[in-house]
Specification:
The chain has 529 residues and is an alpha+beta fold. It has 17 helices and 21 strands. It has helices spanning 2-25, 40-55, 62-75, 86-97, 124-128, 151-158, 215-228, 246-254, 300-310, 362-375, 421-428, 431-442, 452-458, 463-477, 487-503, 507-512, 517-526; strands at 82-84, 99-102, 105-110, 113-119, 135-139, 142-143, 165-171, 179-184, 186-189, 193-198, 203-208, 233-237, 262-267, 273-277, 288-293, 315-318, 326-332, 338-347, 391-393, 399-401, 410-411. The radius of gyration is 27 Å and the shape is globular.
Length: 529
């Protein structure tokens, strides 16, 4: 008996440790006879990697083999189950979280220094007194000029723990010596609501670029501001929005739908159905909503459009959406990497799935976008392919279709002038932004007394700027490009980019939308034309 008492704590400790270990390995959805069985497929894969690691004739990075293996497995599933390597996780997490810790500037490497395009409104750098056009020369004694630093290296030097401080030395044109600033790092929002402003006296406009953790709060703030300004109608712009968190989309839909209206339901491989209903908290249940979509509106964007369309709430305007009706869950792989695995399908309130077919492989799936262009669908709604077998009816008798995106109630063809692929590429690659910064930097004082509204209403880009940007781009691309047929469109890009660098906070959209035919259509519908 004394012997048993002496070793009882040890036995209990071992038993508890074993229980924790085994419990951590169990998948409680498995049947009892599978919990302790081996899996020959998993064993085969692990054994192959071990053979390569220990016995292969050359040195091999087995981590890279694992990455290739994971991607190969996912390639045999659906197009939206993806692997996120460890080195990408921080960037992806920040983007979906909606903020990061830093000093709050937008910048680009200019000649041999770090040029501040604009400090983030109310951010740490703006509060410290840093201005657009400033050059950051040193950070905590580390020189940032004269080096060919990549953006990632620069960001590492400027980011840091929350509330930590960084001492900056800054060159400002016109100042006789370098300026010293101490900036306290803070949470910097990565905005998902690009703009919220009034299009007319009664029509408000909100542009959402993705559905991140912070999106609903940003949207709610913008919606409340527009209501205060007298908005009785809202144009919700979801064009080029690739989606994001399903729950955030549900919250936004809830602002427009009456209590207990079905928003969507999901179904997994076991047939389990989960339904989401609107609650009593909506602030815009009585107002009319116009939802703007295009061929790049996907996932959560389609949840919003589909929920409102199927509940006969508002008007969907634009072109057929992308067609992604699969729901992913992010799963940690234990080494800092993760997989976003498709775990269910979602269905709109009428019961339609808007997921495009993908059985022919990923290449065909993504090439379907080009098929839409070739078929003429982006210019003519009659060219949209629909299947009678996927026809559904809303409560008020409107016919809607499943099987490949949300088809709008009001079709607006693509505007090939403002969607010129060359201009879009130049904008995305930063050529227009860099050119505008250089021109602005020559004489910032010319805009110092100009208000945002005065600029938007009255400023005109001169022809000389069009010729200058041609020269600027041709010098860097080393081949001839001309904007003879697109002077007005180039001017619009320049003015919108200039507005963004001067005023930020939705100024780009407010300028760019002045030539947007889909916005024109919304205004006409709002006016009853």
């Amino acid at each position: 008996m004394p012997y048993q008492k002496k070793y009882l704590p040890l036995v209990l400790g071992v038993a508890i440790a074993a229980g924790i270990f085994i419990g951590g390995k169990l998948n409680f959805t498995d049947a009892p006879d599978r919990l302790f069985s081996t899996n020959s497929k998993k064993d085969k894969l692990n054994r192959l990697i071990d053979y390569i690691d220990y016995d292969y004739v050359d040195e091999v990075n087995t981590d890279s083999i694992v990455d290739v293996t994971v991607n190969g497995i996912l390639d045999n599933l659906d197009p939206h189950s993806v692997y996120i390597p460890k080195e990408d996780m921080e960037r992806v997490a920040e983007n979906m979280k909606g903020d990061f810790v830093g000093i709050g500037i937008s910048f680009y490497p200019y000649r041999d220094s770090i040029a501040v395009i604009r400090p983030i409104e109310n951010g740490p750098s703006a509060k410290a007194g840093i201005k657009g056009g400033d050059r950051i020369i040193m950070a905590n004694g580390d020189s940032l000029f004269g080096k060919k630093l990549r953006d990632g290296e620069i960001i590492k030097k400027l980011k840091g723990p929350i509330n930590s401080k960084v001492d900056l030395k800054v060159y400002r044109k016109g100042e006789p010596k370098l300026l010293n600033f101490t900036v306290k790092r803070d949470h910097i929002p990565i905005k998902s609501v690009d703009a919220a402003y009034m299009l007319t006296e009664k029509l408000g406009y909100i542009k959402i670029n993705r559905f991140a953790e912070s999106t609903y709060k940003e949207f709610k703030k913008g919606l409340e501001q527009l209501i205060d300004l007298g908005a009785t109608e809202i144009a919700l712009d979801l064009r080029d929005n690739p989606g994001g968190f399903l729950g955030i989309a549900e919250q936004i839909v809830d602002e427009f739908l009456e209590d207990d209206k079905l928003i969507l339901f999901t179904k997994n491989k076991r047939g389990s159905i989960e339904k989401s209903f609107a609650t009593s908290k909506g602030d815009f249940e009585k107002g009319h909503v116009y939802v703007l979509i295009d061929e790049n509106s996907a996932s959560a964007s389609e949840i919003v459009a589909g929920a409102l369309q199927d509940n006969d709430k508002g008007t969907i305007i634009g072109r057929r959406s992308y067609g992604k009706g699969l729901v992913q869950r992010e799963m940690d792989l234990g080494d800092g990497s993760a997989v976003r695995l498709t775990v269910s399908r979602y269905y709109t309130p009428t019961g339609r799935s808007i997921q495009r077919p993908y059985k022919k492989g990923h290449k065909d799936y993504y090439d379907e976008y080009f098929e839409r262009m070739d078929s003429g669908e982006l210019l003519d709604p009659e060219k949209i392919k629909v299947a009678d077998s996927l026809k559904f009816t809303t409560p008020k008798g409107k016919i809607v279709y499943g099987g490949g995106g949300i088809i709008p109630d009001v079709f607006v063809p693509i505007d090939n002038s403002m969607h010129n692929e060359t201009l879009s590429q130049l904008f995305r690659r930063g050529f227009i932004g860099n050119f505008v910064f250089r021109e602005l930097d020559k004489n910032r004082g010319a805009f110092s007394n100009m208000s945002r509204q005065d600029f938007i209403d009255n400023f005109e880009v001169e022809e000389d700027w069009v010729y200058a940007i041609e020269d600027y781009i041709n010098l860097r691309l080393n081949h001839k490009i001309t904007f003879v047929a697109y002077h007005d469109e180039v001017k619009q890009y320049i003015k919108a980019t200039l507005a963004d660098q001067l005023f930020g906070s939705g100024a780009f959209e407010e300028v760019f939308n002045q030539r947007d035919i889909m916005i024109d259509e919304v205004i006409k519908l709002s006016d009853g034309e």
